[in-house]
Amino acid sequence: MSRHRNFQNMNYDDERDDYEDDEYGRSYEDEVSMSPSTSEFMYRRPRLNTHNQLVGGTTLNDFIPEEADPDDLPNDVVDDEDLFQMDDVQVSTISHAPPSSTAPPSGLFFPPPGLPPPSIANLPAESIAAANAELAEKAAKPFTPLRAKEPKPVLPNVSNLRVSEKVQRSTSKSPSRAAPAATLTPNTSSSHRLQQLAAISSAPSTPKRTRKGNERGAGERESLNLVVVGHVDAGKSTLMGHLLCQLGCVDQRTMHKYKQESARSGKASFAFAWVLDETEEERSRGVTMDIARTTFETDRYRVVLLDAPGHKDFIPNMITGASQADAALLVANATRGEFETGFENGGQTREHAMLLRALGVSQLVVAVNKMDTVDWSKQRYSEVESALRAFLAKQAGFSAVRFVPVSGLAGENLVKRVDKGHPLASWYTGKSLVEHIDEFTAPSRQTDGALRAIINDVLKATPQQLTVTAKVESGEIEVGEKVYIMPNADAAIVKAVANDSGREGASDGTCGAGEQALLTLMGTFEQDTIHVGHVVVRAGKDTLIPGRRFVARIVVFDVLVPLMRGTKAELYAHSLCEPCTIVKLTAVVNKASGEVIKANPRCLTRQQSGRVEIETEREVAIESFTACRALGRITLRANGQTIAAGIIEEKIA
């Protein structure tokens, strides 16, 4: 049954049966008569007939004063001050209205505005005569038109809707009164900054020194930057922590303390990892989150160890560490199921290897860790080696990769080779991990190039002094010289220089290319303007000029969505991270030769190589790959995945 009534065949007369005697619209006075004394004090409203006329032959419009036509008024806005003159205008207009057949009687009295009109019949003749006399007196007055409102003076600081360049800040300490918004002030610092950059580039270059800052003294080993990467829980921190203990970099008392504290927290197996994971959050979570930096010495090198995080949430920190490295150590977990998770099922082993090659690291050693969990099985080692070797050679592009079986927790085959009675000695006769590290070749340094020192960490910042750690990628830096921090072009004086081991620089106070330097800079710095990724340079024609738009040649990784015009991503270059947009796809090129295959493509799909134009949100301190390799390599990431990597070819002005 329907919930709604059917109104199609309804008899509306039946519906109104209960209202035969319609009482609506009738007042109480129509039914009940009043006494003469009561009716004398009652107000009777004039009633309308069917012709919209008042009883007595008067229309309703005669009681409504005519309003002035807005077109007849002066060209001015009528405000509250002009409204006080409207009463006289209305009265004069009504009094001078032409007579008509429907004009009100001469004895009509106009009540004051806001009051209802009284009954005419009950008014005495004297009151009507007095009202008419008052109306005649007002009508005799001359008509005063509305005066034109004088324009208000426009304040100089808001003329033409422009905000004054000099915004005075409120000195009131009352929280109820907000200071003027300084963000509306036009940014005039850009033109000043451009002039400053032009002055820096046109300044005379500092003459080259006869002695290079990276020349070693007697008995000093050559520097090598080594980064340790791999999937999370591969045992990277434990492996390197135990290696440092065996090399004597950690004393026994400190190591005993770490073992007791880790055992009390229920993480006894993390004792060696605590050598590098020093923060409370890293120790409580059991995961490396930031780059851990330390040094140790081998027979050939003074190794700067960079322990990178393996969790996918900290890939940007891993890129920062890998961008500073000369060689890499990839740690793989030999435990059954663990290796497959990190390598095949979306782990970070593949991504770390691809990032290493994209960042210019060509020397790689693979440490197959946790061999004790598989009883030093040769078969399991061969499975891991064959899978990684094929991937690293064909997809990642590493030409020569060496493998070494180790155990970070047990400390086997790290510094010394295993004994003959060890299970590993039955099938492995190769070198230990440290011996493989000694076989790395230190890359050639750009000692004769312009100064490029990349800031990796800001240790202390005050308005007058700045202490940072920086990797000198090109040239050399010395005490007492004037430098500039790009891209802000902040001037500073170098007050102190120390190398990666913490000792003071060479006898002449310099640090050269390839060294991790601790710099103390003096100058006038604004709060929170110096960040990781800024570059310390020297004035001259070879100085670094920052920019926002660049031409890059990239290789697309295994992406689900092709790269198109307008693709948003994050640009990583050395220690820099900046949002960017692919604004143009120029060509699809051959990976090997760089020959153009297709011009102006619509998209770049997986494993394709192309030339694109990239624009960053802010100016960044990067330059072409030919000028400085470290500042010319880039990596693009989006939605937590690495989508492409390549090099900068040129900067677009």
Question: Would you mind describing this structure in some detail?
Answer:
The strands form 6 sheets. Strands 4-5-3-6-7-8 form a 6-stranded mixed sheet, sandwiched between helices. Strands 9-10-15-13-12-16 form a 6-stranded antiparallel beta barrel. Strands 17-23-20-19-24-25 form a 6-stranded antiparallel barrel. The protein contains 15 helices and 25 strands. 31% of the residues are buried. The chain has 4 domains: 32-140, no CATH class; 222-438, P-loop containing nucleotide triphosphate hydrolases (Rossmann fold, 3-Layer(aba) Sandwich); 452-537, Beta Barrel (Elongation Factor Tu (Ef-tu), domain 3), CATH 2.40.30; 547-652, Translation factors (Elongation Factor Tu (Ef-tu), domain 3), CATH 2.40.30.10. The protein is α+β, with helices and mostly antiparallel strands. Residues 221-445 form the Tr-type G domain. Belongs to the TRAFAC class translation factor GTPase superfamily. Classic translation factor GTPase family. EF-Tu/EF-1A subfamily.
In terms of structural class, how would the helical and strand content be classed? alpha+beta
Largest sheet: 6 strands, mixed
Q: What integer value in Å does the Rg equal?
A: 44 Å
**In terms of per-residue confidence, which ranges show pLDDT below 50 for 5 or more consecutive residues?**
19-24, 56-68, 70-110, 153-189, 210-214, 502-507
Instruction: Please estimate the helix content.
Output: 10-25%
Task: Quickly name the level 1 CATH class of the largest domain.
Answer: Alpha Beta
Note the overall shape: elongated
CATH architectural label of the largest domain: 3-Layer(aba) Sandwich
Q: How many domains? A: 4
Main location: cytoplasm
Domain Tr-type G: 221-445
GO cellular component, one term: cytoplasm
Pfam family, one: GTP-eEF1A_C
